[in-house]
Amino acid sequence: MTSVQVEKQHDGNEAAGDASEEGYQRGLGNRQIQMIAIGGAIGTGLFLGAGKAISMAGPSIILAYALVGMVIFFIMRALGELLMYRPVSGSFSEYGREFLGPFVGFVTGWTYWLFWVVTGITEVTAAATYVQYWNKDIPQWVSALVFTCALFGINLISVKIFGELEFWFSMVKVTAIIGMILIGLGVITLGFSNAGDTASFANLWSHGGFFPKGIGGTLMTLQIVMFAFLAVELVGVTAGEATNPKKVLPKAINTVPWRIGLFYIGALIIILSVVSWTVFKPGVSPFVAAFQQIGLPAGAGIVNFVVLTAALSSANSGMYSTGRMLRDLALNGQGPKFFTRLSKNGLPTWGTGVSVGMMLFGVWINYVAPGEAFNYVVSFATISGMWAWIVILLSQLRYRAKADRGELPQSEFKAPGSPYTSVFALAFIGMVIVMMGLDPDARISLYAAPVWAAILGVGYLAIKRRESAAAALAKQD
Fold first, then answer.
1. What are phi and psi of 86, to 5 degrees?
2. Is the per-residue pLDDT at 348 higher than 90?
3. Which residues cross the membrane (predicted)?
4. Within a domain: residue 14?
5. Is the pTM of this model over 0.70?
6. DSSP label at 405?
7. Domain residues for 252?
8. Please, what is the angle between helix 222-229 and helix 49-57, to 10°?
9. 386: left (phi > 0), else alpha (psi -120 to 50), else beta?
């Protein structure tokens, strides 16, 4: 359903977000939605990014993940309230368009599209790098090309296949983290392995204290931690294809606290207890480092496989979401009309195909510069992803105000503590953006954001002029 259909929804008897209105098939079941929600919170930001964060903050990084995790829950409950009001595949782009204006919807849709294109490039590149762990003779660009084409093919079959692949990708990540936690507990309590003599919960405060780099060091890690949670909002994009969104989506969102508690905070507590925080270094997975300290010979290889899975999962999600975002933009007159076309299986193949074509640029990068890092690109992805969260929160505040005045129906899944929790989350995101400005590595994204905003502004003005010209011609006729 597009924004222009909203009034019809309120006045008529059609169910909000009926799949037939958008043309999609509701092929994602409860099992798949739950694992997509779990997988969205577990990615390379945890498996790799945590290493740099630990080196910057020490054990206090646990508090950073807990604090950001709380903010993420506020964001997801705000999204949940909107989803139960109107579950559509355009999700936060649609809500931004309805509650904040067509320009915000335009900016959000295209920015979220770019976010996933950029993320897809970095994740496919990362996956190609991980393959070289086993065979350095395989050119990096070849692996990147194979992964991109394979995932594109899967996204062309059916949404059920996408959901099933994401289910197993998430299962691998969940199993790996639970296994690591259990092994770590065994090392701490039973004292086996090479790390048995030094493993202790006392490692959380015995090497310079819980805040060895001070509060400032902990605050500087917030943007890294925020990046680790990017894509958690992907569950909102699945709303238009969930078999029973009003039942499945609230259940998935309500699992956010225990997912963060177990997979992030729980895993970090165990890892930092098994091995002193001083061992971890930027660019090295803390999971790999912990396995090496424990002395499990296959540990590094297992973790490399898990990180490879996480990268492919993220790229797969990117292909899924970009096609839906481009179609939503086209349906609202904010993108080329051919993006509205669906395949016989109800898939936005044109939008997905164009997005994958952009992602193939990453294959070229892997060919000409396989050793180059993507730090700047990742920073831009972070600021782009946070824009989606800002729009979710602002849209929920506007929706709640209208619903309280009786102008719109109340959601069946209200965000607890709102509007205070939403305002707090907005303030927190603002603080993180300020912290990014103080970090030389992340500052480039703040320079790139205004350029992207200017490009979008020009594009939006062009669309409005075209609409005005068409309207003038219609009047003449």
1. -160, 95
2. no
3. 35-54, 60-79, 99-121, 141-162, 174-195, 215-239, 260-280, 300-320, 347-367, 373-397, 418-438, 444-463
4. no
5. yes
6. T
7. 24-408+415-465
8. 160
9. alpha
